[in-house]
């Protein structure tokens, strides 16, 4: 595969990234809660051009009894990329990657959802990637956390996510697709800062031990900011409902 130099892409220049960001800058982040009428909870989250919609249903009785757990609600997550979400039209059929990411996102949420309060029910989380430009799994975790809160599902804390990358030897926060494609490492992290738990940690590529520790600290600092934005988005949705703007 051609490297960034061959492709004419200089990803870091004078300490700035290809889109002008400093290493610890997030892309412009937007969060909206409660945007779908037909779901119990919903949220739209954008990190730059990456745009993910989350819809939550439940807790409810499942159509298939098969899914029922005697002592808690079963959390089901479907991560899906819309056919129009990428440059090349993606097949609408679920890919292996989507099946894997559905599991990764579910496992990033399970530690915070108080599923034991709703035995014998299911909570469904549908994640639709509307536009993909890197970091869709961490945006999906963030959107799901907001949609679960919007559905009134009790949680121990909110979860947020961001990926840290290593680009031309520099650690950077919130990698986009270009940085993900040409970077040396990519480390998606999700965490619940209010209870001090990391719920997702993956690493593609190679980091030294010291780089890993720095990257994790950078991710957690960024996630603090993401979760503060989540709280603000939830507050705003309450005010809008209270103010009768819907
Ligand atoms: P993440 O989206 O969590 O970073 P990946 O590292 O697997 O997950 O993907 C990085 C980026 O590559 C995605 O955000 C998306 O922009 C692009 N991508 C992933 N899968 C596809 C696909 N099937 N077709 C086109 N682009 C894709």
UniProtKB/TrEMBL annotation:
Domain of life the protein comes from: Archaea
EC number: 3.1.13.-
Keywords attached to this entry: Cytoplasm, Exonuclease, Exosome, Hydrolase, Nuclease
Pfam families per record: RNase_PH, RNase_PH_C
Nuclease as UniProt keyword: yes
One GO-annotated biological process of the protein: nuclear-transcribed mRNA catabolic process
Name of the top EC class for this enzyme: hydrolase
Subcellular location: Cytoplasm
GO terms for cellular component: cytoplasmic exosome (RNase complex)
UniProt record similarity statement: Belongs to the RNase PH family. Rrp41 subfamily.
Self-association state and partner proteins as the record states: Component of the archaeal exosome complex. Forms a hexameric ring-like arrangement composed of 3 Rrp41-Rrp42 heterodimers. The hexameric ring associates with a trimer of Rrp4 and/or Csl4 subunits.
Protein name: Exosome complex component Rrp41
Native source species: Aeropyrum pernix
Top-level taxonomy: Archaea, Thermoproteota, Thermoprotei, Desulfurococcales, Desulfurococcaceae
Gene: rrp41
């Amino acid at each position: 595969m051609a490297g960034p130099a061959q492709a004419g892409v200089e990803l870091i220049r004078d300490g700035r990234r290809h889109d002008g960001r400093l290493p610890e800058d997030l892309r412009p982040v937007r969060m909206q809660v409660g945007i779908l009428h037909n779901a119990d909870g919903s949220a739209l989250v954008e990190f730059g051009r990456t745009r993910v919609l989350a819809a939550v249903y439940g807790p409810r009785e499942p159509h298939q009894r098969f899914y029922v757990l005697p002592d808690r609600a079963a959390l089901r997550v479907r991560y899906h990329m819309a056919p129009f979400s990428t440059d090349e039209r993606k097949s609408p059929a679920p890919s292996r990657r989507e099946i894997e990411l559905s599991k990764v996102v579910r496992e990033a949420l399970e530690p915070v959802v108080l599923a034991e309060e709703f035995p014998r029910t299911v909570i469904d989380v549908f994640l639709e990637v509307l536009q993909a430009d890197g970091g869709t799994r961490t945006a999906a975790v963030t959107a799901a956390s907001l949609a679960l809160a919007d559905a009134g599902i009790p949680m121990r804390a909110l979860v947020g996510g961001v990926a840290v990358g290593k680009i031309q030897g520099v650690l950077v926060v919130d990698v986009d697709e270009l940085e993900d494609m040409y970077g040396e490492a990519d480390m998606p992290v999700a965490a619940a800062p209010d209870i001090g738990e990391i719920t997702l940690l993956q690493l593609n590529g190679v980091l030294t031990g010291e780089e890993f520790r720095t990257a994790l600290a950078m991710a957690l600092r960024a996630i603090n900011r993401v979760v503060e934005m989540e709280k603000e988005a939830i507050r705003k949705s309450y005010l809008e409902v209270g103010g009768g703007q819907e």
